[in-house]
Structures are given as C-alpha cells and as structure tokens.
Design a protein that fits this description.
41% of the residues lie in helices and 25% in strands. It is α/β, with parallel strands linked by helices. It has a domain of 177 residues: Vaccinia Virus protein VP39 (Rossmann fold, 3-Layer(aba) Sandwich). Helix 6 links the parallel strand 4 and strand 5.
Length: 256
C-alpha cells in the first residue's frame, strides 16, 4: 500500500463502478438549494459541467432540476456505468486539470466527491476559463459525521487498519485553494448534516466501494469488512444502519 500513487487509487474505481452506482449515497435537496441560492442563476436550463461525474449520481440529481449537464469523467469503468445510467447525457473523457471545452461556456462547474483527484491550481484555472462571468464552481463531499459515536469509533478503527485511509481528503483546504488560485471568485462554505437508513449489508458494500478498500488485497478487505460487521451489529442489532453524513460544500462565484 505505501507505494500506491494517487492515480492508482483513482483508477481503482473502474473495478467497482457497478457497486459504486448501487450503494453510494446521493446528496440532499438542501445541497442544491444552497448551490442555487449562492449562484446568480438556477440550475434549471443552466449548462453544467459535472467534473469527475463518476457513475452520474450528482449528474442525475441536477438533471431532475432541469439542468443541461455535460458529464466529464476520465475513468473507463465509471464512464461505462454512467453511459448505462444516463445515455442521454453528453460524456467527455477528460479530467478537471485540462478541459477540452471552449472558454465561457458553462453556468456551473461541479465536483461531487471528486475534487481531491485533481490539481487544485490547475482545476481552478480551468473552471475559471470555462465559466461565464457569474458562473459558479461548486465542490462538495459526503463525509462520515464523526459527531455520531458509532461512526467516530469506526473511523478510528479504519485509520488503524488501512494505510493512507482518507489521505486525499482536501475538504478543509478547498476554499483556501480556490481563493488563492484566482481573485475572480467569491467563495463561501456550507456544512449540511443528514442521514439515511440502509441495511448493514449495504453499509458494508458502501465501505468496500471506497478507493481505500478497492486497492486492498481481497483477503485483507474481507477481514476488515467481517470485523466491521461484528462491531456495527453491536450498535444496530436489527441490522438496519442509520448512516450519518456531514456534507462539506465550497461554492465560488466568478465575479469578473
């Protein structure tokens, strides 16, 4: 594990794309309400570049709000899954460091659970280039809400057992990185807390869809998941898990 690169972690999603689409959480309606409140225009009829679109979880939710979404996804497995889920969505095979798109073409550039895979400076410069004046860059992550005791305990266990666990979490520096990269953006941050109830099996499948798990040897992954099943069932003996999330948002409006 110690010699694995960031690119290796990112490419690991190709092997779990179908699982990712099936078990990863979506995003609460309030997130998109906040995005629209900060932006000069609503998502309805807006042109959105969803960068690192993955299997299309955020893409689909923005489509439901009437947005015209272009999905940008570099990974083979994730792109194939997105094509199956949203065949009507234009798909560009690229990443946020170098967008093969014209200047001043987008109302929104979004990174749902994906900005930690790109270079902060390059991605901000590219977002600034493709956004119209008044356009909005939105980046967000669903994270375990560690104010909830069972999740705090789980995160401690996983950090002890998995090398590089959460090594690429940049949520705390996103606002600073965007403001430092360009003076054109007015930056705000928001935090949402929400929950979903799922089966213990789905919770464990969700864990296994994380890149930190997908790069593990099968025996090591299986051992950790079996251990987690034992620990979590102590909290949820009926095997229905109340997953609690903290969604961290950084919203930046291009003012000039």
């Amino acid at each position: 594990m110690k010699n694995l690169s960031r690119a290796k972690f990112a490419s690991s999603f190709s092997s779990v794309a179908a699982l990712y689409a099936a078990v990863r959480p979506g995003y609460p309606n309030e997130l998109f309400n906040l995005l629209e409140e900060a932006a000069p225009c609503p998502l309805q009829h807006a042109t959105v570049l969803d960068i690192g679109a993955g299997t299309g979880i955020a893409t689909g939710l923005m489509l439901e709000r009437g947005a015209h979404v272009v999905a940008v996804e570099p990974g083979d497995g994730m792109a194939a899954q997105l094509r199956m889920t949203h065949p009507e969505v234009p798909l560009v095979r690229a990443d946020g460091n170098a967008l093969p798109l014209r200047n001043d073409t987008a109302d929104f550039v979004t990174y749902a659970q994906s900005w930690h895979w790109v270079d902060p400076l390059q991605s901000v410069q590219e977002a600034e280039r493709v956004l119209r004046v008044g356009g909005t860059l939105g980046v967000w992550w669903n994270l375990p809400d560690t104010t909830v005791p069972w999740l705090a305990e789980q995160q401690t266990r996983l950090r002890k057992r998995i090398a590089h666990y959460q090594a690429f979490d940049v949520t705390g520096t996103a606002a600073y990185a965007i403001a430092s990269a360009s003076s054109s953006f007015e930056v705000i941050t928001r935090t949402l807390r929400w929950t979903r109830q799922i089966s213990l099996d789905l919770h464990l499948a969700n864990l296994s869809s994380l890149s930190y798990f997908s790069v593990l040897a099968p025996d090591e992954r299986r051992s950790i998941l079996l251990s987690e099943r034992t620990e979590i069932s102590k909290w949820f003996p009926d095997l229905t898990v109340n997953e609690a999330y903290r969604t961290e948002m950084t919203i930046a409006v291009k003012r000039r």
